[in-house]
Write a structure and sequence with these properties.
Elements lengths: L1 H12 L18 E7 L2 E2 L5 E4 L4 E5 L4 E6 L8 E6 L7 H13 L2 E5 L2 E5 L5 E7 L1
Antiparallel strand pairs: 1-2, 1-3, 1-9, 3-4, 4-5, 5-6, 7-8, 8-9
Amino acid sequence: MGRLLFIIGVFAALPACSSDETLTAYGAQDTNWRLIQIDGTPYGARAVLRFSPGGAVAGLAPCNRFNAVQTAPYPWFALENVAIIRTACPDLAHEHSLMTALDEMTQSETAPGTLLLSNKAGREMLFHATE
């Protein structure tokens, strides 16, 4: 009986009849994710990601806004078709570190209020949910 309950619990945790197998369907949708750290170091500027149905990603970098598509199935992560306007500002170095790190991320994990992006080389980006 315990095994049956475990199997039912696994199915109950899956998104209900969703064709979206991306991070969006696994807890990231309709939340503003503020970047807190890159590789354990506090991020010294404002950066926010927002995931929408269909894999659309909207981002706010320190100097510019950007859009992308994330279609890799969870827990994998890959931003594609990144479109950003290059406007200069005093935080351009922070923006460059953000965009470089995002490009290198290959895995994702979600927990209530937390999003972690990482890669096999040990790089990590920690985000917290904001209003």
